[in-house]
Amino acid sequence: MASKIQYAFLLLSAVMASLFAGSAAGVYHIVGAGKGWRMAPNKTYYEDWARTRNISIGDKLMFLYRSGVYNIVEVPTKEQFDKCSMKNITNRWQNGPTIIELTQPGPLYYFCGVGKHCEEGQKLAINLCDDIIGEIVRRHFPCEVDRLAVELVCRSWRTALEPPAWAPPPQLPWIVLPEADGPAFYCVLSGCRAHPFFLPHGARRSRFFGSYDGAWLFLAVDPAQGKERDHILVNLSSFEFLDLPNMIVSLEFEREIVIAAATLSSQPTEQGCIVAGFINFYPLPQYQWLIAFWRMGDRVILRSFAEDDACMDVEDLIYSAGYFHFLTRGEHIRVSRQVIFHQFHGQQGVEEGVEVNWEVLLFQPRGDG
Ligand SMILES: *[C@@H]1O[C@H](CO)[C@@H](O)[C@H](O)[C@H]1NC(C)=O
Ligand SMILES: *[C@@H]1O[C@H](CO)[C@@H](O)[C@H](O)[C@H]1NC(C)=O
Ligand SMILES: *[C@@H]1O[C@H](CO)[C@@H](O)[C@H](O)[C@H]1NC(C)=O
Ligand SMILES: *[C@@H]1O[C@H](CO)[C@@H](O)[C@H](O)[C@H]1NC(C)=O
């Protein structure tokens, strides 16, 4: 927990730094681009120009014009701007070129106060985004983990970042590397910086046995630290942990297990999420892997599935098109068409079981030639 807060504050200082950097070195916008500030070729010329620019707080508007021929006046309201009214101007600049730094939120209205220039279209309205935190985070934090850490800092920052009316860039895959002081993950969007990675104490030598949707990692926490073997699912975005089974408990026996690989049917926080994996007993493994299904949240596995045929021993699994598919050593594919968790009356009262309807897609070599 402590390191989580530390990380948030680290980010806070990074944001503060970029806030100041942002105001010191904002983007320059040359108003009207190549045309500069002059009689507009048509009435929507400057409006069109502004629409193609992302102008925000900290940026600078550069008006290039000839003194005496053109000037710039600022008016406070849209009404006056629309009417090109000079009655209540709040600012006037007349020695070109003029650089105006945008330091405050809110709409800004400029036009040329000479002759009928304004009526002819020499006018510029700027709509500045008034949420500076949101703007900075959007510009400087393309990585989802960084944005989430910013949201953790305080409520007003959280509010600034929601609702996501903007489309964040797609999250790129992370590179997770085992390192001496615990695993770290890196992301390109974050400039290939390492993100701190929060694991339970004593999880320095975790084994990774799957991932889901780029954010969830399946981890087997190493038992060497005096803790029991533990399988967990951790969300690298939110650092949320979910428990996975460490035991198989059937009528006949109760054994500790290792999970070699696993995947999910949906987001683990969604209702009805099913996990499939292949497992083995611990510490005395079978000669082949056993397939298992359980509901997210189950603390024990009820039953495992295996075939005597070595060709049917599983090597990999994937959830695709609504079903779990298991690749076997003989390159066949076992598809679980239906996984049913049910209750029945057994020797010990109401018991739970799992039934699976299997389909096997046999690999058939073409044998050309
Ligand atoms: C206004 O003038 C610019 C530059 O000449 C041109 O690109 C734009 O299409 C014109 N807009 C209209 C509405 O005529
Ligand atoms: C303005 O911002 C959007 C979204 O961040 C971006 O797609 C677009 O390219 C930007 N436009 C300019 C002119 O920088
Ligand atoms: C100009 O400013 C005065 C006082 O600030 C205000 O009373 C008046 O309504 C303003 N006129 C216009 C056209 O906005
Ligand atoms: C975990 O990560 C996913 C990305 O796959 C994200 O959409 C989701 O909100 C996260 N879940 C939680 C509970 O934070």
From TrEMBL:
GO molecular function terms listed in the Swiss-Prot or TrEMBL record? electron transfer activity
Name this protein carries in UniProt = Phytocyanin domain-containing protein
Its signal peptide is 1-25
What CDD domains does UniProt report for this protein, alphabetically? Stellacyanin
Phytocyanin domain span:
27-130
Question: SUPFAM superfamilies from the xrefs?
Answer: Cupredoxins
PROSITE patterns to which the protein is assigned, alphabetical? PHYTOCYANIN
The organism's superkingdom is given as Eukaryota
